[in-house]
Design a protein that fits this description.
Two copies of one chain form a homodimer.
Chain A: H1 13-19, E1 34-41, H2 50-56, E2 64-70, E3 78-80, E4 88-93, H3 101-115, E5 120-123, H4 128-131, H5 141-153, E6 158-163, H6 165-180, E7 186-191, H7 209-230, E8 234-239, H8 246-255, E9 259-260, H9 263-268, H10 273-289, E10 295-300, H11 303-306, H12 308-322, H13 327-330, H14 336-344, H15 347-353, H16 370-388, E11 398-403, H17 405-408, H18 414-432, E12 438-443, E13 453-458, E14 467-471, E15 474-477, H19 492-507, H20 528-533, H21 537-554, H22 561-582
Parallel strand pairs in A: 4-5, 4-6, 6-7, 7-12, 8-10, 8-11, 9-10
Antiparallel strand pairs in A: 1-2, 1-3, 2-13, 12-13, 14-15
Chain lengths: 592, 592
């Protein structure tokens, strides 16, 4: 895609070649006759929150799923969009930059112009080197009203919001407000986030996650090779990715470092800082007994918030920030318990923990050097063990790294190029179908592009409501939001890591996926997470619909009594099982 | 190349493909009949040091250059090696790991086995993940004698030493000692060093430099994209590469960051820490005036030693280390002037400057966070300017990176794979020609492999002697050594950076070479340094020889009086000019 924004720059040969790359489109989006088929009205994964969500989003909750299909077979409930008036569409990058985001714009622009050359695409300058990055949110009444006025003034038919969980929650809120105000602008969300945490039944992965994990895995593998050569350092590598540990998990599966400490594991086991230190020290000691004095340990930037006592300390600090207490006075106002922990920590971490929280109320994770804290604590403990004579190996030596900025600015992988481009096209079809408050979706992503399924799901169907415990049984209910998905500790991806953890720890079975390739072997590699999880929710929903249609077709009035009886008894049993499984009490594991 | 060292590891698809990669050989090394042609006896680039060197290396100084050629044309002084007895060869990695080093072993092994399947290659376990990394040096009498005994016990025909300037200096010393002791083992050096500082008339570049610069440039470019997207940070990136700034210069030319501060520039201009800070601050201020609050600044790890007053401080600290003073007592014993500087510095840098020096007497450059020091000083100065009202822009914000370990463990680039493999083959031919104290050389490297010229040069011809000023006109003479080449501030590569410096600084003309590619565009890219310098010393030496031969052929006894007269007068003028240029006084710029 040509970009004429900014000064002319000299392109490398690879960049030139990449600008000529034409991403693929799945068959359903080729040509100008795309058929939209609506599924059933959507609910939400969390039945307990459904009421709250529907009350907050009266205009946009419960809308049906949409599938975009080739205009060939004739199916009930399907419509071919034949009207292609010129559209005016605005597009904005919200929140943090992520590789591949630009291709959403390209795909959208290409679809707009293919269907009607008179259509207009307006970019709001604000992330990314194409349009610049905007503020992190569109949330306050003031911000929402400003967006409403701008969209009305510019007579936009649609506003496309590209971003992660926060941005898409904001998109849903805008859609609802616009519908309420009878504003003609439809709001469409697109899942773009290197964190990989905008993930649910409809969204298999986010644009950028694939690239970032590949670049990080390349670097982690290089560090592993270095560790095995120098044989004298432990490398502590912190990875960008916000609260959830998806990036760390994926990178661990690509590069097989000795250890990967996941925030979700630490939170679930309620490990303290001291437990964690001890675990790492025990590993170092076990390796020393095999005469190994090197190793590579991954940790997610969100780890610091997953350690219960540190999280409590951070909550106190952020609370004091909220009360307007200045940084210099915070430490004196901490509770005795939090103060004890705070005073124990080394000065560099103290300074970082005191930073003002981010717009989503989390700590400034990219600025807190958790890897240095852990390396420091491990070194102290190893020295202590050495003094006491319980550790007899060589002196422990650590090197610390934070991999973040150097990955998220990468040229996007082929996967992310294609995925983003297809999502951009889908945005057009969402708009052409007149849908509001939807996110563009592509499923069956682990397969080649020609097998991808394109659709759209209401953002409200991805929302959950968090209950915050206030202690002693009291709790408050949060606002409905698209929350970041955490690692499923019962899921297949985590299981794969667990199964191999002992081998990775002791045997140095490092694997090197190499640098991101654009041609030849490796260029079509998909993330391990995507391949292992083997999701195809949208495909399965369609399959269910086909079963229901088939039953309806077979059991038409006039069919035999026996067939009807068999159908009734089978359906009674199915509905019974499903009613039990869907009852709120069954889903007792309420999201935190 | 198959390696069965260590536990079996799962290879990625790219790794599998790379293990199948067969590096190319230039025509002169194909087949088993390689012709060796000897040039004139070698001298050294530093005429003033020639005597010292020849006295230290009586057996190995002044040996001729060797060229390896196809066994076709008949030329005087050429011999075809027809004897291929089984050889016993030892190989060792000395000093720090560098991508591609393994291919030297592969090339050597392949050449040994092609010429005689009964030959044996022994690897000394000691850098790198194949053999492990050895100690940094083989230098003390004890170390040299141990090497001698081992080579004699193992009845080695040759010992191949793979490494940088230090290791090759050691190789020359071993060769001399072995010759003196009538030991049959020939010593061969191979230029492998990511620093790119083993560079002279015979050596155009080192194995590993290409890969490391490409990986670093990829990451720098990603950070540039991030800078341009976030528009709020200055990124200070320190690059590995020891005393010289070759890596930083090459990376700057590949990725076009806003600034690259080279140690050689700072040393030549005698810039103080405060000058340097001021320069960066002025740049930040100039950019702020164009409403730019982001930027990327490269600095080499050796920068800290290039700043005169910091170098003096380090010398004092290292002197005190040498006297056995413990770290806790050093600061109290500094001279008043050094102490004033030391006390001014932030605590983290104090701790790092106090570290024990490396085996080559330099500071522990990889451990000294010069980028953080500079960012800290710039931040202080910008805050001061803001307070004084001379700077009216936004608050200055920095993010610091050290790129080193994550680059030197990379899969080697195609260039480094080929270069190392060819060097390995040359080692065999050096041995077969019975040469001792030589380094394997390939020249004309900027061209495709089939144009590469293969040869060997005595390591002593690459040596220089440094004179250390002791103040007040007194000086001492150091030992002859292969010294690290610094950036030639009058050279073409530096000129290219200078010409573009203003544009890079202000216009954000970032260039992204992308990740290291193994197929398609970019996979055959050579380093900018190599292409710009356009060296072909060995080719030119051969050309000179051809001119001399031609003169001899034309001016044979029996030629006309006129021809003889013309020849005499022309040659008199040539020899006059060259005598003047080669006199020690002409080369008054003695290396530091």
């Amino acid at each position: 895609m040509d970009s004429d924004y900014g000064v002319p720059r000299e392109l490398s040969n690879l960049q030139k070649k990449r600008t000529l790359y034409q991403p693929l489109l799945p068959p359903c989006l080729q040509g100008t006759t795309v058929r939209v088929e609506f599924g059933d009205a959507t609910a939400t994964v969390d039945p307990a929150g459904a009421n709250t969500i529907s009350r907050s989003f009266p205009h946009t909750y419960g809308q049906p799923l949409a599938h975009f299909l080739r205009a060939t077979a004739q199916v009930p409930d399907a419509q071919i969009i034949t009207e292609h008036p010129p559209f005016r569409v605005g597009v904005v990058f919200c929140g943090r930059q992520s590789p591949g985001g630009h291709n959403v714009i390209w795909g959208l622009h290409s679809a707009l112009k293919t269907h009607n050359p008179k259509s207009t695409l307006l970019g709001f300058v604000g992330g990314y080197d194409l349009l610049g990055r905007t503020k992190d949110q569109i949330r306050t009444t003031e911000q929402v009203n400003a967006a409403l006025t701008t969209c009305q003034t510019l007579k936009l038919d649609a506003l496309v919001i590209i971003g992660g969980v926060t941005s898409n929650t904001d998109a849903a809120q805008l859609a609802e407000t616009f519908a309420e105000s009878k504003c003609q602008t439809k709001v469409v969300g697109v899942p773009v986030s290197l964190n990989g945490d905008l993930k649910n039944q409809f969204i298999e992965t986010d644009v950028g996650f694939d690239t970032v994990c590949k670049v990080n895995s390349q670097l982690i593998s290089n560090v592993c090779t270095d560790a095995l050569s120098a044989e004298k350092y432990y490398y502590f590598i912190r990875l960008m990715g916000r609260k959830a540990s998806h990036v760390a998990l994926e990178c661990a599966l690509q590069s097989h470092p000795n250890m990967a400490i996941l925030g979700e594991e630490v939170a679930a086991s309620k490990l303290t800082l001291f437990d964690l230190t001890k675990q790492v020290c025990d590993a170092v000691q076990a390796r020393a007994e095999r005469d190994k004095y090197h190793g590579v340990i991954l940790l997610p930037e969100g780890l610091i918030e997953s350690i219960p006592e540190v999280y409590a300390l951070l909550q106190e600090i952020h609370g004091l920030h909220g009360q307007g207490v200045s940084i210099d006075n915070i430490s004196a106002l901490l509770s005795p318990w939090a103060s004890a922990l705070f005073e124990f920590l080394p000065p560099f971490i103290k300074r970082q923990l005191l930073l003002h929280p981010e717009s989503d109320d989390s700590a400034q994770l990219s600025q807190i050097e958790t890897e240095k804290l852990l390396a420091h604590l491990v070194e102290m403990e190893m020295n202590k063990r050495m003094k006491e004579g319980t550790y007899k190996g060589k002196k422990f030596s650590a090197i610390c790294h934070f991999f973040g900025y150097q990955a998220r600015g990468s040229l996007p992988s082929k996967f992310d190029c294609d995925y983003a481009y297809v999502l951009g096209h889908i945005c057009y079809h969402i708009l052409a179908a007149g849908l509001n408050g939807y996110m563009a979706t592509v499923t069956n992503l682990k397969n080649p592009v020609n097998k991808w399924r394109c659709g759209a799901a209401p953002i409200t169907a991805m929302m959950t409501v968090w209950r915050h415990s206030r202690g002693l049984g009291a709790s408050s209910i949060g606002k409905p939001a698209v929350h970041p998905a955490t690692i499923d500790l019962k899921g297949k991806t985590y299981e794969l890591l667990s199964q191999n953890a002992a081998k990775y720890l002791m045997d140095d079975t490092y694997r090197n996926p190499g640098p991101l390739q654009f041609e030849g072997p490796g260029s079509d590699a998909k993330s391990v997470t995507l391949c292992v999880e083997d999701q195809d929710y949208m495909g399965q929903i369609k399959k269910l619909q086909q079963y229901l249609d088939k039953v309806r077709k077979i059991v038409k009035p006039g069919c035999s009594q026996d067939v009807l009886k068999a159908a009734l008894s089978s359906m009674a049993s199915v509905t019974n099982v499903l009613s039990v499984m869907s009852a709120p009490s069954f889903n007792s594991q309420t999201p935190l």
